[in-house]
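ingest -> validate -> predict -> emit
validate: passed (alphabet ok, no gaps, 157 aa)
predict: started
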Amino acid sequence: QRTATFDSAEDCETGSGNPGAGTILAEYPGAAWTNAGELTSEGTNNFLTVDLTSGSWESEPIQATWSIASSFWATYGEAVFSIHVGNGGGEPDYFAWLVTPGATSGTWSYDQRFGGGGGLSNAKLWGRGVAVPEPTALTLLGMGLAGLAIARRRRKQ
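emit:
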């Protein structure tokens, strides 16, 4: 009854109700998920920005852009973007996309093919895990540790 698309997703899960951290964990098992930003209208909240390019909040069809602040990826290693669209008036009630690591922007859409109760209720960004350091950062860390070891060795002599 309802369809949606999302650029830069590795997977999409759907279901009933308004997804919370437990729902996202059930869809994408592993470490716990943290709500890193929630919107109930266009704008920016924490790490997440949503702008509608056509349609309006609490209606359908919708075309929109999304962006995740680059600082999100310095904090978290994984992301899920979810939308809640109605509550029991059709299936599914939510879409939850596993975002391609490092992605910071793209487009998404939502449409209700038939049935009722399908307006956009909220969009959420979920994060988990620790950001993986870049190889350059690991190299610098290694060089710093080696320098400390050399300095310590010289001091003992």
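The first strand starts at residue 2 and ends at 6.
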